[in-house]
Specification:
124 residues; alpha+beta; Nuclear Transport Factor 2, Chain: A
């Protein structure tokens, strides 16, 4: 079941991904090459997440800062540490994601990443 305690017990990003509905809508804001809307968990994983993971090394950890919730929506603020590109690019980032939760699944995400960090990771 998706809950705030799940976010604290594990990596916030991983807890959200584990709770993501197969047909979830995921919008990445900003001007990076990943900005846009994805219409399934698989599409987001293929077009965004796998490409980011392909450019970063192991050891990244995420720390939860805040969760604000109202009805079906929650705002989750967290940051990463030890996030590094294979070319030593510092990929530590603050994250804010708006989540729409229905039952125990996340059905929509609006993510506000640091576009400059994403652009930097892929320009090296």
């Amino acid at each position: 079941m998706f809950s705030g305690s799940n976010l604290i017990a594990s990596s916030p990003g991983q807890a959200i991904l584990n709770s993501l509905h197969e047909n979830a809508k995921w919008t990445v804001t900003g001007s990076s090459l990943f900005a846009g809307t994805y219409h399934s968990k698989e599409e987001y994983h293929t077009k965004v997440l796998s490409k980011i993971h392909g450019k970063t090394g192991p050891g990244m950890t995420a720390k939860l800062c805040k969760v604000l919730a109202d009805d079906q929506w929650a705002a989750v603020y967290f940051f990463t540490e030890n996030a590094q590109g294979w070319d030593s690019f510092n990929f530590n980032m603050d994250y804010c994601w708006f989540l729409k939760v229905v039952g125990d699944q996340v059905v929509e995400v609006i993510a506000f990443p640091d576009s400059n960090k994403l652009i930097g990771l892929f320009s090296g």
